[in-house]
Amino acid sequence: MTVNRNTLSVVSVLVLLSTASLSLGAKNIYEIRDFGAKSDGKFLCTRAIQSAIDKCAGNGGGTVYLSAGTWLTGTVYLESNVTIWLDTGCTLLGSKDKGDYGPPRVLRDTKDDKFSYWAILAGKNLRHIAIRGRGIIDGQGANFKYKDGPRPKNIYLEDCRDVLIEGVRLRNAGSWMQHYRNCDRLTIRDIAVFNHISYNNDGLNIDSCRDVNITGCIVDSDDDAIVLKSLSLKPCENITISNCVISSHCNSIKMGTESGGGFQNITVTNCTICSPRYSKVIYGCQRGLAGVALEIVDGGTLDRVALSNLTIKGVSVPIFMRLGNRARPYEKGQQKPVVGKFHNVVVSNIIATDCSSIGCSITGLPGHPIKNISLSNINLGFEGGGTKDQASREIPEKPTSYPESTMFGTLPAYGFFCRHAKNLKFQNVKLDTLTPDHRHAIVFDDVEHANVESLDVPYAADSAGTIRLDESRYVYIRNCQPQSGTELFLDVRGSLSQNIVLFANDLSGVKEIVRKRANTPESAVVLNANYLSQK
Questions:
Q1: I need a surface site. Which of 6, 45, 59, 271 has the fewest CB within 10 A?
Q2: CATH number of the domain within which 167 lies
Q3: Number of domains the chain contains
């Protein structure tokens, strides 16, 4: 028997664990007090916690129990078939001493395969593990506020299967809060993250993992909040993020920047995104950068991504999509990767308010378009205040630049700037501005095969055209009703622009329906079955 009866009876522990669907006998519970741990927040409990884990694993698995109290520790290595249970009132406190992190450890069932990592809880090549309860893991990351050299994470798991992270509260990591690398069948639910103490304070990082379910979490971080990465040639695949509350001074939901393998079969739904309310910025900006950022810049493929039912408040840019060519390799001996692929994204039922004046962007590269992007039932509110001079800004390509929603500066469109794209669909998109904006609502530059249906935008006197098409082909615009007094609805530019059709729009309140520039073919635009002014 390994439960300290002076602290908590065996019966009460069994009741506690059985209510969480753990069918265990008393012999499967190992309280760290019985291995010499002390809960004063000063005594280093690393050896005691590790001994409890090793004993539990050696006996076939079970639960290592941390009762209420403050337990100071360095790196502890998990083992297969072991659950770490942090009870209500428990704080697992990361050591302030660098020397307490990352001691090498020979992996179980190997002769000399060593593993070392700077984290409070770390593990590699494990099966059937869990970190559960209502306790807190606090990394005391203020002691590691530097950019050079290793800094501890709160949780790091690599090459693990059947992992459950549930209920715990994660605070103040030295760098990323939690990092799951090349893991299968990972479930993260009902956790709360607050990470605003040091540099690179991401909230939750999924790296080259498969079959992941993230649900019911609250993640508030200085750097990116919930972020998918592929720091290998293996993609993040089969991942669902749902019912979360997310805020960040950088990107709230992000795929990238690292994209060696890419992101495939991803669903993000029923989440609330807001600007951080309880912290001051270290990276990014106070209001946050992007609500959703999708990025492929190091090769890899982004394919089959669905975003739905998101509410966004107070970020700089609600939606950002980027195919670039930073071309960073991630594996030894790997050749410089070619430009990746970015296609098959469906975005629906998005409401955003209080966004900056920058505008959203969907941009590929010349000869490498973003493909098959559908946006429907989108309602975005911006600060406005853009000028006609900003509407004519030349936007550099920046193929190798770090991708960020602010990378191009204030865009020529307050709504969407789309360049090097194919098969775009905008359906029932409403754009609004707090103050009048004189830029375009939408700009298509080198876009082929696009549909704009039921676009709803505000009126601004003496503004640039509502929609601008540069060197764009096969564009179909229908069922739009520009507000009365609109100066110019469609501005068409470029010698390659052709097969542009305006069909079934109410253009009766527009002063100038189409303006074709000097180098644009006369036959580039066709009007059919539109309602025009009767004057």
A1: 6
A2: 2.160.20.10
A3: 1
Can you tell me the distance from the alpha carbon of 191 to that of 205, in angstroms, rounded to the nearest whole number? 14
Provide the residue type at 117 as one letter: Y
Residue 128 lies in a domain: yes
Domain range for residue 24?
1-201
- Give the model confidence (pLDDT) of 375-415 as tens digits: 999 999 999 999 999 999 999 999 999 999 999 999 999 99
The span from the CA of 328 to the CA of 294, in Å, is 17
Name the CA radius of gyration of the chain, rounded: 27
pTM score, whole prediction: 0.94
Sequence-separated (6 or more) residues with CB below 8 Å from residue 270 = 242, 243, 308, 309, 310
* Residue 228: its H or E element: strand 226-230
* Nearest to 214, CA basis, from 193, 235, 240: 240
Count other Cβ atoms within 10 Å, centred on residue 331.
11
Cβ partners under 8 Å of residue 137, min gap 6: 86, 91, 92, 94, 120, 121, 154, 155, 168, 169, 170, 171
- pLDDT tens-digit readout, 178-197: 999 999 999 999 999 999 99
Tokens at 228, concatenated? 């998918």
Instruction: Read off the pLDDT of residues 54-81 as tens digits, 9 standing for 90 and up.
Output: 999 999 999 999 999 999 999 999 999 9
* pLDDT for residue 441: 98
